[in-house]
Specification:
The complex is a heterodimer. By secondary structure, chain A is of the alpha+beta class. In chain A, 51% of the residues lie in helices and 19% in strands. By secondary structure, chain B is of the alpha/beta class. Chain B has a five-stranded parallel beta sheet with strand order 2-1-3-4-5. Classes of the chains: A alpha+beta, B alpha/beta. At the A-B interface, helix 9 and helix 10 of A face helix 1 of B.
Chain lengths: 663, 127
């Protein structure tokens, strides 16, 4: 009841409840949007802050680490080239530096190759005599180096080394080589190498290589994927970029400018750290972070915000529902009661606890109804009295009415009774008929089973009987009388075979195939077989076909058997003289075929037992013909019926459904 | 004269067939059931035509015909049966063995029409 009232539309098509809900919900959504956005902004700021602080921490330890780089003497162990095992032990010892020296050289090229299994250092130089030499690791030559002039320019690292060395040579200062960071031996490292120039010799004397372990540094940045990202960039003291790992082009820019507009697209998170040997600063290292990392964190923050917004939305929907309901229930109660009141139910009261103005409204409504009820009760009492008086008056005039009128009524009632009785009898008759048909079909079914099992067993004795009769006929010693008797035995055996065949057919569900046929042609085919005999017997066949009948899907062979049966019956009914009229026409959704004879007609007894197996009026009949016909027509969802008048004749009618009867 | 193998479990029927066909001048071998027929066929019995019943205890006519086919025996056959009728031919399994409706004769039969079929199968002149 309440729900129905809630559904009642207001002037603009919305209920009170719906309006309240929408306004509460709207306010809620505005709040969500504002708080959601603020939450997101807050989260972003927090991420930036957190990242910066993490980097600052990392910086503290990294500065300490970079400060460990040694000052080393240029002159010292000059055996490196000859004893390359020194270099091997350097790589495996994880020392911070190694001094590469060699006999005087005009040019020196160093290269670190990061291969599976470790990092390999190779170098090429040209000694003062102009002979090119290659530093090898052990006995194995690592790489064939090309000359300076066609140094591979495509490889960024190579071209960088090339440029750097040329420049440093021109300025007569130490050369620098930088590579990394990369993973080596489970540690994250980068290398810095500086070839040494010896004024005494007037050329390069060797190189100092710094092997920096970044593992500790990176530990501070735990949780971020740095190994493929920009971490450190190297600058000259003149603030020119030497190398930014991962950067595909060499950009010479001032670090300060990086801080402002991020041309390298990473966030500078450290101050410049100067590192160098011999207490002399050689380069500056700047630490930074790729914006990609920030984007990942940003995305996470966005996901969090969406979840937050979703939860708040659910909360707001629940709140809006509860609040709207609380407000609308008393109003709905009022509407319900008002409706009842309008229909005259004065006992109605609004039974809702509500405070404030709505509570007052409910109370005054209840009071109003109470007063109304009191007033109405007294009016009702008056009305009742008036009604009683009127009734008495009417009764009086009623009794005074004409007696003839009453009689008429009685007669008409009797007529009605007769009609009802007739209908009832008709119904009972119909019921009886249906019951008979039911019994009939049950009988047919059980009989069918019996016949099919029995029929098989009868044929063998028949064969023996007829066979022996035939063999006896072949003997020459018999009299004509015996021969005649033997012939009769044979004929009767064949008749028995025929009965069994028909019984089998009758008892077995048809396996025949259906096809579309022109029913007139179908009848003609049957007549083609029978008509010759009919002419001899003086029976005339009259055709009354409707032309262009629609094709009908039937088991033609079976239906033709029905035709044959009905025509034969018609002929038999006329004792061989008369006319059979075959009429075909459309009747609604059915195709109707009438076989009308001018025979003797059927007695009542025959009409009732028409379809019963073994019931026959013929001398030589089996009593199976019409039972078979009935089964066939039923299987086609059709109807087989008879109309008969004694001494005038019988009409057998077949009705076949046009919409494809047989399944 | 051609040899005919008659297979039927009913002695009465066998007797009628044997007496009639012998009178018509054929040489007759009898089998009183499917098993006996198979026993005769396996070692390669000398005969020109087999007349066989369908419904027999233990080993039926269909089994004998299957075995005959397995033996690659293509000699003609007449199925003389009271256990099926013409409409049941298609569900009898005979079609699958390559036997047509013309190979089946239904009991009880006019002995002379049986004789016509026998002669037709043996490509003999019909009087």
């Amino acid at each position: 009841m309440q729900n129905k009232i809630i559904d009642k539309k207001g002037p603009k098509g919305l209920s009170i409840f719906q309006r309240l809900f929408i306004s509460y919900f709207g306010v809620g959504i505005v709040i969500i949007v504002i708080t959601g956005a603020q939450y997101y902004l807050y989260k972003q700021k927090a991420i930036k802050k957190e990242l910066k602080s993490q980097f600052s921490n990392a910086l503290g330890s990294s500065i300490a680490y970079f400060d460990r780089i040694y000052t080393s003497r240029i002159r010292g162990d000059c055996d490196f080239i000859e004893k390359s095992s020194v270099f091997n032990s350097f790589l495996s010892s994880q020392k911070d530096e190694i001094l590469l020296t060699k006999p005087l050289a005009e040019q020196l090229f160093l290269h670190f190759t990061n291969r599976a299994g470790g990092i390999y250092l190779s170098a090429r130089f040209i000694d003062p005599k102009g002979i090119e030499r290659v530093i090898t690791k052990g006995n194995k030559r690592l790489r064939n180096y090309v000359s300076l002039d066609n140094f591979p320019p495509t490889d960024i690292l190579h071209s960088k080394i090339y440029t750097l060395f040329k420049r440093l040579k021109r300025e007569k200062i130490d050369a620098i080589l930088f590579e990394g960071p990369f993973e080596y031996g489970g540690k994250f490292t980068f290398f810095i190498g500086t070839p040494k120039y010896d004024p005494e010799v007037g050329g390069f004397a060797g190189a100092v290589i710094f092997h920096c372990d970044l593992t500790d540094y990176l530990k501070h940045l735990d949780g971020y994927v740095f190994y493929n990202e920009h971490v450190a960039s190297l600058f000259t003291l003149d603030d020119e970029l030497i190398f930014a790992p991962g950067q595909k082009s060499l950009l010479y820019r001032h670090p300060d400018s990086l801080k402002n507009d991020n041309p390298l697209s990473f966030y500078i998170v450290s101050d410049t750290v100067k590192i160098g040997s011999n207490n002399q600063a050689l380069f500056k290292v700047v630490l930074g972070i790729s914006p990609d990392i920030f984007h990942i964190e940003s995305k996470n923050a966005f996901k969090d915000s969406i979840l937050y917004i979703f939860l708040i939305t659910v909360l707001i929907i629940i709140l809006a529902l509860v609040m709207s309901k609380q407000f609308s229930i008393p109003l709905v109660g009022l509407v319900t009661s008002a409706n009842r009141l309008a229909k005259g139910d004065l006992s109605t009261r609004v039974n809702v606890n509500a405070g404030g103005e709505i509570g007052l409204l409910v109370d005054s409504f209840n009071n109003m109804v109470e007063d109304l009820q009191k007033t109405t009760t007294s009016i009702d009492n008056l009305n009742k009295e008036i009604a009683v008086r009127k009734k008495v008056e009417e009764n009086l005039s009623e009794t005074l009415k004409d007696e003839a009128t009453s009689r008429k009524i009685v007669i008409s009632m009797l007529d009605d009774n007769n009609q009802i009785r007739e209908k009832l009898e008709q119904h009972i008759e119909d019921l009886k008929l249906t019951q008979d048909m039911l019994i009939q079909s049950e009988k047919l079914a059980s009989l069918g089973k019996l016949v099919s099992s029995m029929a098989h067993e009868v044929n063998n004795p028949l064969m023996i009987i007829s066979g022996n009769a035939q063999l006896s006929l072949m003997e020459e010693i018999q009299s004509e009388a015996v021969k005649n008797n033997l012939k009769i035995i044979m004929e009767e055996c064949l008749r028995a075979k025929n009965i069994i065949r028909r019984l089998l057919k009758f008892s077995r569900p048809s396996k025949g195939e259906t096809k579309e046929v022109d029913i007139n042609k179908s009848i003609e085919a049957v007549l083609g077989i029978m008509e010759h005999q009919f002419k001899l017997d003086d029976v005339e066949i009259k055709r009354n076909y409707q032309e262009n009948l629609p094709l009908i899907t039937i088991d033609e062979q079976q239906i033709q058997e029905v035709f044959m049966n009905l025509i034969n019956n018609a002929k038999d009914a006329m004792s061989g003289v008369g006319a059979i009229t075959i009429t075909t026409f459309l009747e609604g959704d059915f195709l109707r075929l009438d076989f009308k004879d001018t025979g003797s007609g059927m007695p009542e007894e025959a009409k009732k037992r028409l379809f019963e197996p073994f019931f026959t009026t013929k001398e030589k009949g089996t009593g199976l013909g019409l039972a078979v016909c009935y089964g066939i027509i039923k299987a086609h969802n059709g109807e087989l019926k008879f109309e008969s008048e004694l001494k005038k004749g019988t009409t057998a009618s077949i009705l076949l459904p046009l919409g494809g009867g047989k399944a | 004269m051609p040899k005919i193998l008659v297979v039927d479990d009913e002695e009465g029927i066998r007797r009628v067939l044997v007496e009639f066909l012998a009178k018509m001048g054929f040489e007759i071998i009898q089998a009183s059931g499917g098993e006996e027929a198979i026993e005769l066929l396996r070692p390669g019995l000398e005969m020109d035509l087999m007349v066989i019943d369908m419904k027999m205890p233990k080993v039926g006519g269909l089994e004998v015909l299957k075995e005959k086919k397995n033996l690659n025996d293509v000699r003609p056959v007449i199925i003389l049966t009271g256990s099926i009728d013409a409409e049941e031919y298609y569900s009898s399994g005979l079609k699958e063995l390559g036997l047509g409706p013309g190979d089946v004769i239904y009991k009880p039969v006019d002995l002379f029409s049986l004789l016509d079929t026998v002669k037709k199968k043996l490509h003999m002149a019909i009087e």
